[in-house]
Amino acid sequence: xxxxxxxxxxxxxxxxxxxxxxxxxxVQVTVVDRGGAAQATTAHGEGNVLxxxxxxxxxxxxxxxSRRLWPQVLAGIAESSPRAAxxxxxxxxxxxxxxxxDAGAVELTRFADAQRAAGVRAEVLxxxxxxxxxxxxxxxxxxxxxxxDDAQVQPAAAAAALLTDALRAGAELRTGCEVIGAxxxxxxxxxxxxxxxxxxxxxxxxxxxxxxxxxxxxxxxPVDVRPRRGxxxxxxxxxxxVFHKVYDADYVxxxxxxxxxxxxxxxxxxxxxxxxxxxxxxxxxxxxxxLRPEVLSGIAAKALRLFPGLAGxxxxxxxxxxxxYVPDHLPIIGADPRxxxxxxxxxxxxxxxxxxVGTARLLRNLLLDQPTKIDVSAFxxxxxxxxxxxxxxxxxxxx
Length: 399
Fold this sequence. Notes:
By secondary structure, this protein is an alpha/beta fold. 30% of the residues lie in helices and 25% in strands. The chain contains ten helices and 19 strands. An eight-stranded mixed sheet has the order 5-6-4-14-15-16-13-17. Strands 8-2-1-12-19-18 form a six-stranded mixed sheet, with helices on both faces. Helix 1 packs parallel to helix 6 (155-168) and helix 2 packs across helix 10. The longest helix has 23 residues, at 58-80.
């Protein structure tokens, strides 16, 4: 009996995670990317694996599922490649959210109460406990919470480990291979056209991140996924200064916003190499990849409110990346009802690193007609926020 053939279109962390899940399930997998593996959005992320920034609802359920899966996935990778698993730099160091205004404290307390009801661990820190956990954080705060389940990975290494495990299970990788069109027969997507020829499969997974909207349009079934840019500052290596992922209470509001204008909030964390990563920003500027001094200044100013001692610390570089934004802030996971054979796994905006393994498990379950651990109806393709662009019917093309 022939194995099911699936082409995963995109070799970022979501595509790599999907490829691994499917390959381990016995599916014949081909991963296709117009560039190189994990070279775009994944390489420009901070590696967040968070539950702290998500309100009760479908995305939080996916985040909780993913948080449970990450250690299991890494343990599986370590069995065959301990070095690859170590390179992921998994750190379950927890997160701390700090409010610096009375209004922020009220909102943070309300938000955490709702999260606890949904099973999230959120611990109140008084002034002494906060000082013990983060000696260099501002003392000018009105509330603080610790989320022990927040974690971090090195995103490019995590994607590489997932993809390597997929290749070990029999998957094939084709880089420098851009999808330029579709082959459709009797309403089914049977192939994708590339400069090197047609790639045929039984199913195709759109895991193209911020480019998922453009790719879906090329295949004849547009989805409303747009790029939303974020920027990060990187300091020179420092003595131990930041011990958790620390962010201000404004960050949650920025994550859930839909505004096009610039938004900044403080997100500060250290790396194993000693550098401190300072974010974050959100702005919708298409695929304009220019760094803007005013954006970087805004990020730095917010960070200094949390860690005044960072004033004068040299910044050795800054980088930015594009995140896949969907207007209702929920991922897209599942089959496209307009074009048989097309599946989607994306739209996570800045949460794709953390949600990748849960998304991949759901995608595998759905594609192979298996039960899912959580309700996936909120992630369906045929919801108004996803189909908010004018869809053109997929055209028939003869081989």
